[in-house]
Amino acid sequence: MSSNHPLKKNVYNKTGLPELGLRNYWYPVLASLRLRKGRPKSVKVLGEEVVLFRNKNKIYALNDQCAHRGARLSEGSCLYPDSDTLTCPYHGWTYSGETGQCVAKLMEGPGITIPNEAKVKTYPVREHLGVIWLFVGDMEAVPLQEDLPECLANTDEWHTISTWRTYHCNWRPLNDNLCYDLHAPFLHRNSPELIFQPIFPFASRVKTIPLKDAKGLGYRALGGITESDYPGLGHFPPPKEAFWRRLKPLGRGQELDPQSSQATKRYGIKYRHMSLLPTVTLVGRPSGDYFMCRWVTPIDSETTLFYSFNAFRRHSTIKTFFDRLSWILWQSWTHDLIFSDQDKRVVEKVRSDREQLSLSDAGVIAWRKFIVDNSRRPNDENLHQNLNT
Ligand code: FES
Ligand SMILES: [Fe+2]
Predict the structure, then answer these.
(1) Which ligand is closest in space to the CA of residue 188?
(2) I need a surface site. Which of 66, 138, 274, 368 has the fewest CB within 10 A?
(3) pTM score over 0.85
(4) CA angle at residue 210 from 207 to 215, to 5 degrees?
């Protein structure tokens, strides 16, 4: 991106939210099935080029730039599959997946001395829920479990289905879109997914509450209306709505009632909608048996990976079967495709060089501030100075 590109001067520069994402967290980067044994694959995360490769049963992640003359290691090969190494395609420097150290320069013979500097950076990498996770940062990796919400960490209690999409925008507009942003009653009101669900009221006030573990925010919408007259314009909603908006169904899209919802009474879940560090959104149901978990992985300043996990609480084999069937027959296209596309079309074209935050942005403002105040950035001493300017 050139230095006079409008995104360089965008409003986010004032917020302290880094353009390339929050370092020192785990991120989902690739579906496990896309990494075949002995076939290295390049991924980009938070602007860093990484090569992933799988040898025997283990996965390794190295910086994708050969220390010799900079060829792409992802174009190389696992010539010695029993040795957990990756060989550069250009002159055969061969790297240990474990340490990143060059262990052989194939064109120079076996007897040479290899200096310590002949190495590439390694990244902590894990495989979990059929997804490859990478820790990108400047500190020793925390255990993956520490960054996962309970519905992704506890596989005895939950089963998941995951999908991914690439968004052609910076991670920050997508992150704003997923936290408690009051766009659903407008943008999604005619989405086919909501045929059996009531639409949220508008003009509600959003209360944000830090979660107990200080890893995120819970949202509660207070009040709101479902219709009104706007002087000089007319009625909202307008007469030409999708017919199902007139059905006024009752159902899932309600705030959790602490007195009566099963989610609160049985499982202690207090909020239907939560944001968690680094860039995770959870939207649940009053039953407490389902969460839609969206994870935003910055690729570079203009591209973002959107990983979506549908997490279902395990009850019985038959319930698991029907959960998965209902996702395949209904949610996969009504939500993960059509509903999400309504967001995607708007978010990818957002210009962030000017913005006027308003009443409906209370959730966005709170979540941006929470990230800046609480995210794990051990090496950034200027963080709070930036915020105050
Ligand atoms: S550039 Fe990789 S071995 Fe020469
Ligand atoms: Fe949306």
Answers:
(1) 2
(2) 138
(3) yes
(4) 140
- Ligand 1 atom nearest to CA at 73: 2
In a 3-state reduction of DSSP, which class is residue 96?
strand
Query: pLDDT by residue (tens digit) across 228-237?
Result: 999 999 998 8
Gap from CA of 302 to ligand 2 centroid (Å)? 20
Nearest to 294 by CA among 351, 346, 358, 339: 339
State which ligand 1 atom lies nearest to the alpha carbon of 71.
1
- pLDDT, one tens digit per residue, over 339-350 is 999 999 999 999
SS3 266: helix
Would you kindly state where each structural domain of the chain is located, as residue ranges? 25-128, 143-387
- Token code pair at residue 323: 């959960």
Which of the following CATH numbers is that of domain 143-387: 2.60.120.280, 3.40.50.80, 3.90.380.10, 3.40.50.300?
3.90.380.10
Fold observed for domain 25-128: Rieske Iron-sulfur Protein (2.102.10)
Among 51, 62, 63, 68, residue to substitute to test ligand 1 (most atoms within 8 Å of Cβ): 68
